[in-house]
Fold this sequence. Notes:
The structure is a homohexamer. By secondary structure, the first copy, chain A, is an alpha+beta fold.
Amino acid sequence: MYSLNVREHFMIAHSFKGEIFGPAQGLHGATYLVDMEMRRPKLDDDGLVVDIGLASQSLAAVLADLNFKNLDEVPEFEGKNTTTEFLAAIIFERIATLIKTGDLGPAAKGLTALKVTLHESHIAWAAFEGELTNDAS
Amino acid sequence: MYSLNVREHFMIAHSFKGEIFGPAQGLHGATYLVDMEMRRPKLDDDGLVVDIGLASQSLAAVLADLNFKNLDEVPEFEGKNTTTEFLAAIIFERIATLIKTGDLGPAAKGLTALKVTLHESHIAWAAFEGELTNDAS
Amino acid sequence: MYSLNVREHFMIAHSFKGEIFGPAQGLHGATYLVDMEMRRPKLDDDGLVVDIGLASQSLAAVLADLNFKNLDEVPEFEGKNTTTEFLAAIIFERIATLIKTGDLGPAAKGLTALKVTLHESHIAWAAFEGELTNDAS
Amino acid sequence: MYSLNVREHFMIAHSFKGEIFGPAQGLHGATYLVDMEMRRPKLDDDGLVVDIGLASQSLAAVLADLNFKNLDEVPEFEGKNTTTEFLAAIIFERIATLIKTGDLGPAAKGLTALKVTLHESHIAWAAFEGELTNDAS
Amino acid sequence: MYSLNVREHFMIAHSFKGEIFGPAQGLHGATYLVDMEMRRPKLDDDGLVVDIGLASQSLAAVLADLNFKNLDEVPEFEGKNTTTEFLAAIIFERIATLIKTGDLGPAAKGLTALKVTLHESHIAWAAFEGELTNDAS
Amino acid sequence: MYSLNVREHFMIAHSFKGEIFGPAQGLHGATYLVDMEMRRPKLDDDGLVVDIGLASQSLAAVLADLNFKNLDEVPEFEGKNTTTEFLAAIIFERIATLIKTGDLGPAAKGLTALKVTLHESHIAWAAFEGELTNDAS
């Protein structure tokens, strides 16, 4: 099994709802380092997991939508706690969609799994990973 | 699959028995950076893998038991080589027990797997990982 | 010249005023890794730059005042852009005060210089450094 | 499941064929940090995944064959793009062979899986991983 | 004294002349992580050491000139060993020129010192640093 | 001013004397990552701060003397607390001596300053730095 990982980052504000969050119930923020890992059992004809340039662009495009935002004001996240693990899954879904629509190039259809890791500090990070179903329907 | 990781460290002295260890047969020591990764297929009601505060406290509590110790004098480890991989499994077992006894909170019962990685230097690390069986007995 | 460094982090929300900041004019946030470096020409009687426990506690105390806050609502920062470099100087001043008031222990009076570095991401960081004038007045 | 990882690096020149590579079609180079992860379900009699000294030597020996080379002139790679993911698989195969021939010691026969990760920069890395079939034939 | 640092990278091929270089006399290559640190005693009116966007663009522009090149074929470096420390000084000079010509914005004229660090691996790096003389002539 | 840095590590056991050390008064240990930074205003004739191979060998030789030792039993350190900052100064002195005796090669006589940093964990490190007086006597 092959894998390829690219790293980017984004910076947001948010707050959490629930006593379990203690002082993080206040409006604060985070820098998230994002690792996007793509997996496939065989390389494409160019000897690649995926075009690394397109992969970086696609990740940057997905993050640009969140970067420099107050997530408390993003309608899609209303009523949700935008925890690190929750955001990892959101970004996973958005990239999975871009792969299906061909934004990472035709060869990216060969990807079989994806993992998105968000580092919120040097001592804490969270991830969401899953299979990719690229067979159109 | 979701995962959450927290990092801590501890510092111990120990020695190894067996020619294969060469100069590490002498009494020496190590700083271990510890990464505790917890996995589960669905987030809890707060949008969390686990309460990160309780997770960090639990890891710190487990490590406090080893920190600033000479492992050669810990009765439990008598006759064992406390290698990095051995210690990773020890810490795995102790955290798994804390999860079962509820120290990481009731939601932590939803955890299905755990991985403990110990970094002994910038160029060497070892891990132990396994499924969690949270169904009481 | 000796130096000792301890690392902590904090997470805040803020926004910037001025066209030069582009999208960072919106309310967003950051995780800041903070490196506090203390310098002195001779070690104290215990062979230390400073009691590392007290140093970590003092840094944590200074950061607790900012952690999980929206800096746009902190009266002291009104009319200021709380850039990474600005915050480095703020934290420098607060630690310098703690050193003078003895919070880092009596031996900390031997410190002659201090540097505070704030990492806002894996690719950008800023610092403020200066001499310490510990001779009371 | 236990795992042990050792890190080394090597430095090479190469060029790529195919429009998809853009400016990387020119002769350039890379420093690759290499992480070799070995896995097994049970430790050997010394409490080890593998003799870490032999593991590091074996990895260094495999890399010495590539280090300070222009990969465009290595006959084995003729007609291939020596991408990061391609090289990860090459190094995987060479280490797997050394394990079979006993270069990592007799206990290394207990290894069941191997992963080789090559970091080409602080923001991009690739890996190849697979099962090991140590039962001779 | 304030400082601001931004990080980028580039990838090149080169060879060295002189027995002291051993196997590095062959054509090989490197990934260089580049840290550009800019220093000044007072912040500008926006609370900045320098516009971080312009700084990153300027560094990227300087590195684009070297990226994906075989340095043995760059006329300017003929007869020189393009060692890590030599390249650090080259990049320092080019950025210093951009600061003088105003590419980092008018406020960058307040910069008084610059340091360029090139990391060639996780275990070796080199730097060149010096004062900036911004008074035009 | 040019600088070159190489990194190595060593692992030791020790204990501290004095109430200020709390639980670190017990026999424990540490992994120390060691950064050796050498400085000079001009490169040598090969375009180098120093032969990086000799520098790494010299650092490794100095560390081999401490590696896998219980520092409490090293006669030279009797009555001393072998703190991170103390050890940084010890290693500084030993390397400075090697430079004077020519172990880093004749060109190393051009070095004017040296800094030795010891990282005891991912959140704490200490250093000793000073001028080098290479004019024999």
